[in-house]
Model the fold of this input.
Amino acid sequence: MEDSATLDLLARADGEQRLPRLGGMARPDGVVIVSERYWAFSGVDGKLLEGRMPELPTVVRRAPLLRGLAKLVLAFAPVMRRSGPTKRVERAGLLAALFVPFGLVLVSQAAALAAGFALTAVLFWLLFRGRTLALHGAEHRAIAAVEARNLEETWEGAALPSRFSLRCGTNFAALAAPITFAADQVWPLSVALWTPLAVTMLSLALTMELWQLVQGSSSRLARALLLPGLALQRVTTREPELVETRVALRAVESVLRRSSQG
Done:
C-alpha cells in the first residue's frame, strides 16, 4: 500500500509543470532529499524521516558571498539535526573533520600534515562507507527523474536517468580546490593566524557564486568548468540497483507531497 501511494504521487508529479528544485545527499543507509523548504531521509530499511529546512534571512539571501556560505551550511542541516539520520558520534566526527583543519596552523608542519591525512581518511570513511556510492548514484537518478518528469518510469525501472549530476557537491569540490589554491597564492595581506580561515571562507564563497552562475548558464564554456567534477563522479557514484533508486524516490515523494500541501 505504501509503495502504491508513493507511485501514485510520483505519477501525478510527472504531469506537473512546476516542481521544487531538489538537491540531496547520500548516506551509508539511505538518501536525503532536500528542497528549499523541506527535507526527507529515506532509509534502506524503510525508515522515513521528515523535517523543514531552516530559512535564511532576506538580507543574507541577497548578500553576495555571504549567501553562498550560508547555503553551504544549510546543506548539512538535515544530517546535523538530532532528529536527523546521523548518530551523535558521526555528527561529532563530521564537525571535527570540517573545523579541526583550521586549528592546524597552530602546530608544526609535520604534525599538521599527519593530522590532515588522518582527518581526510576519517571524512572519506564517514562519507563513502557502506552503500553510499550506489545510493549517491540513486540520489542523482531520482532528482534527474524529477527534472525529466519520468518519475513513474524510473520507479518501474523502465527509465534510467543519469547517475551524474551538474549540481553534485563533487562538482563544487572540484571547483573549490583550484580556487582555494589560487586565493592562497594571491592573498594580498600579511600572513597571520587567521589567514588560512579567511582564505578558505573567501574561496568557498567565491566557488559557490561561480557554481551557481555556471549552473544557470547555457554557455558551453561555462559548463566546461564542471567537467572535472563530472569525471570525479565516476569515483564517487556507482550505478544503483532499482531497489536503491526506489529508496531515493521515496524521499523525493515525501518532499514533493509536503510541497504540494503548502
About this structure: Residues 164-236 form one domain. The two ends are 24 Å apart (CA to CA). The chain has a mean pLDDT of 84.
